[in-house]
Amino acid sequence: MRLSADLINAVMAATNDGLVIAEFNGSAASIIFANPVFSRLTGYSAEEIESRECFFLLCDNQDSEQLEKLTAAVQQQSECVCKFHIRMKDGRLHWIELKIAFLQNQQARYLICTYKDVTQEEYVKNVLDKVNVLYREMSKRLEYTNETDQLTRLKNRGHLCTRGEFMLGAAKREKLRLHAILIDVDSFRILNGIGGQALGDDCLIKIADVIRHYFCRATDIAIRMGDDEFAVICIEDDDQRVHERAESLRRDVRALHIKDFSDRQHQLSISIGIYSITPEKNTTIEEMIHNAGQLIFSLNNNGDQIVHRQAGDNTFSLRH
Question: What pTM, to 2 d.p., does this model score?
Fold first, then answer.
């Protein structure tokens, strides 16, 4: 690689986003470097893209205003920030925020591009735009103060009957992917027997905090169903991304410990069932939660696992 020490330092400073450096000759920009984040984001290794044109990932049918903005910045060799669809190596489309800047040293002039994955932000924005009218129509019916579980501060079953039904209706109308996630606390009755209600309450509060952390988007609702069960209803176009969020939840709960009155520590764990579907006319929230519960039941009390069924596909489970 033909990189100076200054340029390497600039690359090392940008670790959170994908970064590409291209040698710029005034009319073309050939890639000479890509950082590991770019490779993880796009699926392309640095070797695969070396010498390719800098913007080869951009799809057709981009927003004309964004393209004009990028073209003008390249011609003027100035900085700019744009938003584009790019196609990954596996064919998937992602939204990225593209920032470009130019750097000159004694040997050559370089074009530096950073790629920030904003797919989730764009997806949520798109969904919210689609259902905004429906939400306004139902907003008067949502009385949040009466729909909160007093212990965990998550929503309760009453919220599931209002906001949950609203999300189901939106998913049916817009043909969106909807997911029911049921979360069962492993060995909860044993914990209650050891430390009484106080220990059980501490367990539920800590787990609810982790659920709230991973399912806090405007298109998520997290519910305490009662006793040792929680549920999440969420709109998400990528089934695998839902599975990854659930896996992060399972992992972080596994890292939790609580102390009983004898100062003994107890490790927590959860079992998770995920039922994913593009809802049809007769689909109900109750049916989806029931199906997620049946997946947990299929574990035969072997906790700390995730089972995910995608409607119309086979069930798969991961054991940890």
Answer: 0.61
